[in-house]
Amino acid sequence: MVETVDENTQELDDFQQILKHIENEDNFLLSGGAGSGKTFTLVQVIKKVIEEYPTSKVACMTYTNAAVKEIEERVNHKNLNVTTIHDFLWDNIKHFQKELKKGLIDLANDDEITRIKISDTEVPTDYFKDIEKGIQYKEYLRLAEGIISHDELLILANHMFKTYPKLSDILKDKFKFIFVDEYQDTNELVIEIFLDHFKLSSKSNIVGFFGDAMQSIYDDGIGNLDNYKGEEEGQIKEVKKEQNRRNPKLIIDLANRLRTDGLTQTESDDPNAPNMGGDGQLKLGDIKFLYSYDNDIEKIKNHLAWDFNDVKNTKELNLTHNLIADKAEIRNLMNIYNNDGILNYKNRIRRHLRDNPIEEDLSEKTFGEVIDILGSVNPTPAMQRFIDENQELYETARNEIWNVFSKIYVDKDQLLDDKKQDEDDENKKGSKRDALIRHLYKIETNIFLYSNKRYNEFLRATDYRFSIRRIEDKRILKASIESLINVGEKTIEEVINEANENGVCLIDDKLERFIIDKGYLFNRVKNVKYKEFQKLFIYLEGLTPFSTQHKTKGAEFDNVLVVLDNGGWNNYNFKNLFLATGSESVLNRTQKLFYVCCTRSKEKLAIYFNSPDEAVLTKAIEWFGEANVIAL
């Protein structure tokens, strides 16, 4: 929702500072804490430069396709180009095929670039000369065929802008303004393009960054721009956005104790800000630090007495999807995508063959034959336990053709990625969902829309729309979708086939290719009950009381319960957060994640810590106040 701003507020002061930097042709950074309205200011700046520079084009980059759509809806103008960062970079280098081919070969032959390797020997300069479609950017990686994916795109784009300053000339001529939203999550390679490689061009343009260093919770993001900030010519000019429009007083105070970058948030001086009460005073809010020694979450929820079924206003935040899998009832799918010891063993063998190549042609061998040929490459104890518990599955895998089986890549993001991607976004690369999950998502979208009486949207979504020519066709469709709704104990395979046979959702080339290329994976998923996928659907759509702490970044809820459980993840340590000990990188990562979680709440915040020691409780009292630290 777009916030209204009075002309005398601090928001307008921030805005005017940015306009001054634009007037001086300075690159700038808007730093704002959680709930400060950074996106609002970004939109205002975009509108203003379009108004002031009517012949200039504006590029705005953000992280997800959902964020792209949000900004496009707020500013609809022909001079504005809103994309994800990956799409922006690809759009501006994809036509230079000769340079792309040379760049990939140079990188493949660079021993320091470990992510781009085509063969163990030096790649010849004419390696890509016979590739008909040229270098392509897709969801998957096939370097030998000239197909790059997300990570390789960043490396290649950085190399291109560093090697060919003319690219920066072209881009600066095309876009006078480049704005980067959520800059802290942007890869350092991208920042180098805009702040280092752009300097190789004598042309001018303005790059503006919007974000919050304390919300940099992804390891591949730059985190901050401290190395580039300053008041000297050529350095980035920082504008601080210190007012908080979302959180009540107690949460603002807690957030300020957690910040480590010197930015202190204050209450908004706009009486209409969401966190202001009807009397014009900042809401006080409610914070609690709850603890017990029996790890009973239900006891905690009973104490809070919140309506956790009110999923729009109340959320329980856990660190990992794995901790949520049982609560959300998606354990079988989670295990298939995140815990397959046979595929892990296959990857172990692939790594061995990469590091110890053999002369024998393995392409037509089965997985079992490859294991027998190598002889000495044994599974780890964890892999062996999985194999012992799944002997029938292991025998099936042993009969898979190595050339196909070895290429199966499975990752939980293919199951759980929630970056929106509809049919209109097919050319965009924001979603990591695989073809099977996308197809199931399409089926469930049909069921969900019809079940919620959103009939017009349903008619636009169903593949059967192309067959509707008379009233009778609509009656057939009604019977088909209502039959599909009653999934009962049907398996995923049964629902896929039924949706295809009745025309509601047709099996397409992508799913057929998935079944051929990833038959082992499909054969595992197809036997799962479809109702489990429905649980996954409502979880990813934000319709459950649960969410991961990462997934909730950017969202806000009235009531937030944060469960401090590392879940066996060594990248975070909540106990050390309270003790300020341990690895500095783990401490910083945990503190930022905790900051993000706490600042999601608009009314009430509760933290649950199982079995804390006295030192943790001492710090909890310092942060939350003695009256708010409660044993249950």
Largest sheet: 6 strands, parallel
Q: What's the N-to-C terminus distance? A: 38 Å
Q: What are the segments in which pLDDT stays under 50 over at least 5 consecutive residues?
A: 1-11, 419-430
By DSSP (H or I, 4+ residues per run), the number of helices equals 28
Could you characterize what this model shows?
This protein is an alpha/beta fold. 44% of the residues lie in helices and 12% in strands. The chain is built from 28 helices and 16 strands. The strands form 4 sheets. Strands 3-2-6-7-1-8 form a 6-stranded parallel β-sheet. Strands 13-12-14-15-11-16 form a 6-stranded parallel β-sheet. Strands 4-5 form a two-stranded parallel sheet. Strand 9 (243-244), helix 9 (249-258) and strand 10 form a beta-alpha-beta unit. The longest helix is centred in the last third of the chain and has 17 residues, at 435-451. Mean pLDDT is 87; it is low at 1-11 and 419-430.
Task: Give the gist of this structure.
This protein has 632 residues and is of the alpha/beta class. Strand 6 (177-181), helix 8 and strand 7 (206-211) form a beta-alpha-beta unit.
